[in-house]
Design a protein that fits this description.
The chain has about 500 residues and is mainly β. About 0% of the residues lie in helices and about 55% in strands. The chain is built from no helices and 44 strands. The strands form 10 sheets. Strands 11, 13, 14, 15, 17, 18 and 19 form a 7-stranded mixed sheet that branches. Strands 2, 4, 5, 7, 8 and 9 form a 6-stranded mixed sheet that branches. Strands 21, 23, 24, 26, 27 and 28 form a 6-stranded mixed sheet that branches. The protein is rod-shaped and about 150 Å long. The N and C termini lie far apart (about 110 Å).
């Protein structure tokens, strides 16, 4: 490795060419010494023909020395600063030593200088017949002023004050010295620049995430004062070892990453720039296997399927990792709407739902479809083809016994407008059901009469909500069926 450095030098800021230094007053000699450790300071009253030692073997890094000006006036004053034991020398321009008057003048910074935020700025001034001063600064070329912290009431003879450059970059800075009704400010603006601090910050993944193998995620970072490329790496052992992913321009701030098949609960990502500046995820994240989620409807799934009113049918499916339960719904309009719920919550793992087909229409439909869906609606499976629904149509035998043990007496009154009574006798006990069919043969009403003992019985038929017409009715036991006709009038 090698180092690139500034040349060794000493530059004197004050006094400068044409300055007037008040005799017998405290005056700041200020300078900048690059790669020089110790210096001597000399004064000449005759333009450098002869020299008088002012200070011996002081730290060059101080950059300032409060000098008591000589008591003799001169127009050929010169200050020389020389490296102790070395060849580096700096000299000021010629200045004057004059009789003191009440005066105040800013010497440094006086315009054109450039500092970095956080740097130490040596403010220098000269004064005469002024006991104390205060210091202010402006960042807008003198339009407004703010006090400099710690510089509220300084002895004027102090002549210098060390001030930290504000962390507010700008090129409109000036300083002002106030005292005894007088003030003076920098002749021109000086500049404070932003301090260059190379930093990298990983934004994501930054801990706690669960990434799936083969998924594409964004690795994001913030780069400041980083030039060129950065190297992006990952670890699956909490930083014990690292694998490079690729390089990317630091300014891009992101990289698309296909998550590798390296299962881990202790994964990290790291971004590294030139010079070793780097940052890693604040906490570990997980890399986990991809979870296969599927939902497939097995039946009904073909146009050859026929569901008849009153039939016991079964919907079947297969599901994997979609949740505990599913909904099962029926559409009668090719899937445009799903108005009939077969099951609001069925076990996804069971894969089957039994259902008795209700009355859906008075006519045959060929537009039925079934849909099975996860409860959140993300995963669905629908019949590939529409299938058929057929309403139950009565094959009517009027009066008499259809099977042994059950005899129909009839409906009384018949015709009727609102209510009537169907009557029958049965020689065997058992469960009974009364069904009513529309004039077209569609089942419109089913009444469970429960278990009845042998003997004569009657059941009420309420026709208040049925339109006028000739209806068929049917009495069913576990072993016999009898049918009859009735007329509803309005």
């Amino acid at each position: 490795t090698f180092e690139i450095m500034e040349a060794r030098s000493i530059v004197i800021f004050t006094p400068s060419l044409g300055d007037q230094v008040m005799r017998s007053t405290i005056y700041p000699i200020t300078w900048q010494a690059i790669r020089v450790n110790r210096v001597n300071i000399d004064y000449s009253s005759n333009g450098g023909a002869s020299w008088t030692r002012v200070a011996t073997d002081i730290s060059a890094a101080l950059g300032t020395y409060n000098w008591t000006a000589p008591s003799q006036n001169t127009a050929m004053g010169v200050i020389r600063i020389s490296e102790v034991g070395g060849p580096i020398v700096g000299e000021s321009g010629q200045f004057s030593v004059v009789t003191p008057v009440t005066s105040l003048r800013v010497l440094r910074p006086n315009g054109g200088e450039t500092y970095t935020a956080g740097d130490e700025i040596v403010i220098g001034w000269t004064s005469a017949n002024i006991p104390t001063v205060s210091l202010e600064y402006s960042s807008d070329g003198g339009a407004s002023w703010l006090p400099i912290a710690g510089a509220g009431a300084l002895a004027a003879t102090q002549s210098t004050f060390r001030w930290t450059a504000p962390n507010a970059p700008g090129n409109g800075y000036r300083v002002k010295v106030n005292g005894s009704g007088l003030n003076d400010m920098s002749d021109n603006n000086f500049t404070v620049t932003r301090r260059i601090v190379p930093t990298l910050t990983v934004l994501s993944p930054n801990g706690g995430e669960r990434l799936v193998v083969d998924s594409v995620v964004t690795i994001a970072w913030l780069a400041q004062d980083i030039a060129g490329d950065v190297t992006v790496s990952y670890s699956v052992d909490n930083g014990g070892t690292w694998m490079d992913i690729t390089t990317a321009t630091a300014a891009s701030g992101q990289l698309a990453w296909t998550v590798p098949a390296a299962l881990s609960e202790q994964a990290l990502v790291r971004v590294t720039g030139v010079g070793g500046v780097s940052d890693a995820s604040d906490a570990v994240f997980a890399i986990e296997a991809r979870v296969v989620r599927t939902l497939t409807l097995s039946s009904p799934n073909a146009s050859t399927v026929v569901w008849k009113e009153g039939d016991d049918v079964t919907v079947t499916w297969s599901a994997q990792n979609i949740g505990n339960d599913v909904t099962v719904q029926l559409s009668t309009d090719n899937g445009a709407t799903w108005t009939t719920t077969i099951a609001a919550s069925a076990s996804a793992a069971a894969g089957t739902q039994a259902w008795r087909v209700p009355h859906l229409s008075d006519v045959e439909l060929t537009t039925l479809r079934v849909k099975v869906a996860s409860l959140d609606g993300v995963y669905t499976a629908t019949s590939n083809e529409s299938f058929t629904y057929r309403p139950q149509v009565a094959s009517v035998t009027t009066g008499g016994s259809v099977d042994a043990g059950l005899r129909l007496s009839g409906v009384y009154p018949n015709p009727f407008a609102t209510t009537a009574e169907v009557r029958w006798t049965q020689s065997q006990g058992g469960s009974m059901e009364l069904r009513v069919y529309s004039p077209s043969g569609a089942l419109v009403r089913t009444t469970d009469l429960g278990r009845l003992e042998p003997g004569a019985h009657a059941a009420r038929i309420d026709a208040a909500l049925l339109p006028a017409g000739v209806y068929h009715y049917e009495l069913r036991s576990t072993s016999a069926v009898v049918r009859g006709m009735m007329t509803i009038v309005r």
